[in-house]
Amino acid sequence: MMRSRFVFKTINFFSACLQSAYQELWTHKLRSFLSVLGITLGILSFMTLKMLGDWQTRETEAFIAEIGGHHQVIVEGRQPLDGKDAYDMARSPGLRFSDLDSLKAQVPGIRSLSKLLLSFKVTFGMRNEEYLCCVAGVSPDFMNRHRMDYGRDIFPGEYDHGSDVALMTFPLFKKLQKEQGVTEQKLLGRRIYLSLGIAPKIVGVFSKEKVGTEWPIYKYGIFMPLKYYEKNISGNNIRTDGLYLGLTADADTTTAKENIRQKLVRLHRGVTDFTFRTADWVSNMQGTIEKVRLTFFIITLLSLLVGGLNIMNVMLTSVSARVREIGIRSAIGASPVQIFLQFLFEACFLSLMGGGVGLLMGAFLIPAGFALAAPGATPGPLMIYILQGGAVSVLVGLVFGLFPALRAFRMRPVTALHNE
What we know:
Elements: H1 2-27, H2 29-66, E1 72-77, H3 83-89, H4 97-106, E2 110-114, E3 116-126, E4 129-138, E5 146-151, H5 156-161, E6 165-169, H6 170-180, H7 184-187, E7 201-208, E8 221-225, H8 226-234, E9 242-247, H9 253-267, E10 274-277, H10 279-321, H11 323-331, H12 336-373, H13 382-409, H14 413-419
Parallel strand pairs: 4-8, 6-7
Antiparallel strand pairs: 1-9, 1-10, 2-9, 3-4, 5-7, 6-8
C-alpha cells in the first residue's frame, strides 16, 4: 500500500513538472524556441561529427590492418641526390618484381608479398558510350578483404597461368547499370574491350571492405591477374616504384629491414637506390586522425555549450518570474527538494525536446549525406548514436539546469512572498 502511494505521488509530481514545463514553453514561445534550437543544433553537430570521427577512425584502422600496418616494410625507389649519385644509380637495374621472389627466398621473417601494377585513364566502350576506368594487375596477396557481390572470385590457378579474366568494382558496375541498364547476368561472362588492347572476361563484381582511402582504383577499377597484365601490357620482369613486404608477427622490423637492405644492395650491383617506409607513416596517420577527432570534439563541445547556456538563461528568467509561485508552493507544504527537482526536470525537458528534434534530423539527414558524399560507406549503427545523443541531451539539461534549480531551492517562502 505504501509503495503504491509512493509510486502514485511520484507520477503525479513528474506529471505536474511536465505540465509546468510545457506551460513555460508555451508562455515564452520565442525564448523557448531559441533555447530548443540551440540544443537541436548542438545535438545535430554531436551526431554528425561523432559519426564522421568514428567512421574515419574505423576506415583508417582497417586500411592500416589491410596493408600490414606495423608488420609491413615498404621499399621505395629514391631520387638521386646529385650528379655523382645519379651516375652510381644508373648501374642499378632498379626495383623489380623479381626482387620480391629473391627476398622471400633468402630473407627470414617475410610473410607475404603484394604485387600491383596500375594503368590510369583507361577507356572502354559500351553501346556507343565511352567510360573511363583504372586497370590493375594484382597478385593474390593484394586481393584480400574484399566481398564478392556478383559472380565469382579469380581462382588461384588463373592467377598462376595469367588467365584473361577480371573483376569489376561495384561502383563501376552500378554506373553501368544506371546509365546502360546493364544487369549482373548481362555483365558476367562478357568481355570488356579496353583501350590498352586487351579484352578480359568479367567473372565477378566485388566491393572492397573497409577501405581507408579514396584511391580511384577502388571506385572505377577492373582487376586482373598480374601475369595477364605483364604478358599483355608491361612485359616480364618489369620495374616498379615500390615493393610491399608483409612480415611475420614475431619478426623484428629493424633486423628485417637490414637483411632486406643487404640483399637488395647485392641485387642492385652495390647501389642503394631505395628507401624504407615502415611504422612511422602509420603513427603519423593515427596521430592525424586523433587531431581530427579532437577538433570535432571541441566543435561539438562549443555547440552544446551555447545550447546549454541558452537553457540556463531561460531557467534563471523562469525562476525570477515565478517567485510568487515558489513562495506559495513552499507555504502550502512543498519541500525545497521538490521545487529543486521541478526546475531541474523542466531544464531536462527543454534540453530533451531540442535534442529529440536534433536526433530526428540527424537520423534522416546524416545517412543521406553519407550516401551522397561517400557511396558505399557504412557510418555505423544509427541507434547507438541516437542513444548517445539522447544521453547527452539529458546531461546538458542536468548540468545547465543545476544552478537555476539551486537558486529556486534556496528561496524561502516568507522571503519569496515578501519580495513578490
